[in-house]
Amino acid sequence: MATTAAEKPSGFTIARLLNALLVFVPVAMLMEWVLHSPPIWIFVVSCVAVIPLAGMMGHATEEIAERVGEGLGGLLNATFGNAAELIIAVAALRAGLFDLVKASITGSIIGNILLVFGLSAVVGGARFRTQRFNATAASLGSTLLVLSVVGLLVPAVFHFLVGDTAAAQERTLSLEISIVLMATYVASLFFTLRTHRHLYMGDAGETAPGGAHPPAPVKRAVAMLVLATIGVALMAEFLVGAAEATAATLGWNEVFVGVIVVAIIGNAAEHSTAILMAAKNKMDAAINIAVGSSIQIALFVAPLLVFLSYWIAPAPMDLIFTPMEVLAVSACAGIMAFCANDGETHWMEGIQLLAVYVILGIAFYFLPASAVVGH
Amino acid sequence: MATTAAEKPSGFTIARLLNALLVFVPVAMLMEWVLHSPPIWIFVVSCVAVIPLAGMMGHATEEIAERVGEGLGGLLNATFGNAAELIIAVAALRAGLFDLVKASITGSIIGNILLVFGLSAVVGGARFRTQRFNATAASLGSTLLVLSVVGLLVPAVFHFLVGDTAAAQERTLSLEISIVLMATYVASLFFTLRTHRHLYMGDAGETAPGGAHPPAPVKRAVAMLVLATIGVALMAEFLVGAAEATAATLGWNEVFVGVIVVAIIGNAAEHSTAILMAAKNKMDAAINIAVGSSIQIALFVAPLLVFLSYWIAPAPMDLIFTPMEVLAVSACAGIMAFCANDGETHWMEGIQLLAVYVILGIAFYFLPASAVVGH
Amino acid sequence: MATTAAEKPSGFTIARLLNALLVFVPVAMLMEWVLHSPPIWIFVVSCVAVIPLAGMMGHATEEIAERVGEGLGGLLNATFGNAAELIIAVAALRAGLFDLVKASITGSIIGNILLVFGLSAVVGGARFRTQRFNATAASLGSTLLVLSVVGLLVPAVFHFLVGDTAAAQERTLSLEISIVLMATYVASLFFTLRTHRHLYMGDAGETAPGGAHPPAPVKRAVAMLVLATIGVALMAEFLVGAAEATAATLGWNEVFVGVIVVAIIGNAAEHSTAILMAAKNKMDAAINIAVGSSIQIALFVAPLLVFLSYWIAPAPMDLIFTPMEVLAVSACAGIMAFCANDGETHWMEGIQLLAVYVILGIAFYFLPASAVVGH
Lengths: 375, 375, 375
What we know:
Chain A has helices at residues 2-7, 9-21, 24-35, 39-65, 70-94, 98-127, 135-162, 167-195, 204-207, 218-250, 254-266, 268-279, 283-312, 323-341, 347-366, 369-372; strands spanning 131-132, 344-345. By secondary structure, chain A is mostly helical. In chain A, helix 7 (135-162) runs antiparallel to helix 8 (167-195) and helix 12 (268-279) packs antiparallel against helix 13 (283-312).
């Protein structure tokens, strides 16, 4: 790691800062198991502890991904950034907190696009007047996002039309739509990793700058990945266990906690990676991380959670999102599609994405709990 | 025809297969007039019988269209592919089955885009890594589609706001919007056939490969067209007469029958033509057939049916589509606009269109009849 | 002005015609203060009187803007075209006619895009087969428009979910969203006037054709601007005072008056300027006027009116638009985004925009007052 740090000082500083946060992992354990602290403190501390752990997962993945080209590396990064999220969602699923699960799905989708890519475009745009990326790859990503939106819209409109009388049908509908989404995801992997891999190879040549760089120690990276995963799983248990009480204490609704707080925590790894890439003018990597991560949440994590709910949750989970969540994801997909289309970004595009994020955040904050829950 | 067949063997095989299905035409007559078979059998047999007849209409048109260039030929093909649909819709209109009429309009629009163009992109994409088409023409098409969506959204939102108290106003609103849509259609014909004809000439040179090819016997084609039209009209009567009883027997709702079943039957001709074109890497023709056909349904067939309802239906028909139909058409227009924009397709774009089709099909299948009917 | 007139005869004729309409300014004063005429006459006459005054404001601005390049000039033109609108909205705000204020905001946004740019594309397209413009600048504009739509959608969906029980929260939500919109507007000015100014310089060279043209008398232009502003403010008072009674007399609802009538009056200046530019094949200027004006209404005028309502209105105004208004603005932003994307227009694109305008106009006309008002 020392060699890497010497090469990218800013990445190094961030890594150091993140590592310092690891102290919160034992603190959280102490507060939960020994001190039985108030839920709000356990929530805050375990939230903070997730950040370096998710960062470790991301860093380990980055080392593994280093040799496979920028585009594919971005995809891999997104995958393990979402591992933290999947673990948190599974913990909430086991506790039967379906609204929190769905809210964290919504929050991840919009957070990755609006916050992560928005900040990337601003940070990158502050240094470069115009940043270009592969419009074909980005367009495929945003079309997949629109497809996801249709997959989430249909059950919501169905629920709106049918009312509370058809819960069994809604579960079947959700299950079948989940299968379609998952199948599309598998097809998209085949596309990105096989038949059209060249679109995602990006600026691979720049990433691995010559033979002077020794191959990263893959074994060590895998060990780090395993350890970090266990840590995230533990923190996720604490975090989810304390979420409801925390929301009640602060007067926040559960959806706001899921959409904004949990999603930001879970995506901290992508944040730092994507922004670093943007600052180096590697917008292909930044956009792959942001859009790829959102797509993976929508087409892989969401259906996977529906499947898992039949095994590990108190009851099967459906895919019915609340109207405000559907609006958020739709707005996000629409605005991303327009941004991705022309193959270039400026700082102003980033500002726009952030503005939409803030507007949606305000709306989720003010929504009373009764109106938030769809059913 | 023998010469043509020798040139395109795959087209020939499909034509043969379709011709074999013509045997169901007399079978349907027998079942309806002599045997008085159960409605479900009459429905199935007359559905199957429509396919070769619609194919004949398409084939006859193709021969006539052969000399006018790929783009214009595609437009002509789409016109007569929709003739079958128009005939079925008129039969349903006369029977006062307005929900079935509207469902078949919805189904044609989404079927042409999602199913026909989706399959075309997959079949073409299996042979060619990237397929290109004229983005200007395709963009115009998808913008017209968005316009159609606005035309269908406005009455639905109006109905949602006003409730059941303003049926007379809604009919006037629908009539006036129909006039606007029809006028736009006429303007678009003037654009495609007159002022910007060059955009639609496509790969005309490739279609007519040299002077060795003798001019097609136009008279014979016209006779075939007339005969096939009469056949379709007859089958449409049988099909519509049996639709309600069939839906009841199978536990399907009327809208599912219209959106999925009737629309697939009516578009069988476009299916085979568009897919053949895509397999030959003539994506301009394939996209013209799919998008052109959808536009014609939305801007020409739908308003025409509203006008006709004042003459041949038990009561005037309005343009109020159900929320799920509006969602389906909106999703379809949105996703098409993004696909059309960059002027190229891959097989994955086709998979995405098909996935959206399947998701919508599942939703229409599960919707209970009471929720399907808008009013 | 004589020199200018000699150079652009058509502009000169329109200016003369507009100047003749100035006679309605004293007529309106006479009717309001001396004759106490029926409201409908005062409304009509003061509407007509606004047109030349708004034209004067536009003309004065044009002279000031002449040296700063086409793109920036278009922005300045749009600013003072909206000054007329802002003045009318302020008059309605002081009278507490919030529905009229919001309707005129909606009407300005859709009027500028659909009517002004639609007519520009038709008029320009009648002379030039294909007209090109800077797609980057236009895309930024349409993305900002999509952002505005999200800003307007969120309070409407919030209101739909929460009902009438949370008026205080809705006002806070509206105020905070207004702040975000205004901040985004300031950022966009920084983008267009500072960091990415070159994108908006357009065909500046053509606008100022050589040194033979003497610098315009700026003092005179400023004086004209001040006078015209006072005139518009006066006419706005008359117009707003008579609006309700006029709507009642004609059987129109207040929203139709705001969306269609007031918006057309207030935008008359942009109309003539944008269409003149389009006729000269300066589509960059035309699109800047139309899109820039819509954006300014949504991101600057609308939040400004919310802020002002805390000072000058009987009660604070929220940002909750009616569902039909939200649909109108969404449709408008969506269709504009697709049109702007490819960097070229044809007359048919103009026809489509006009068709959407007519469809929306029909819907607003038929909506009964009870359904129009959102709360």
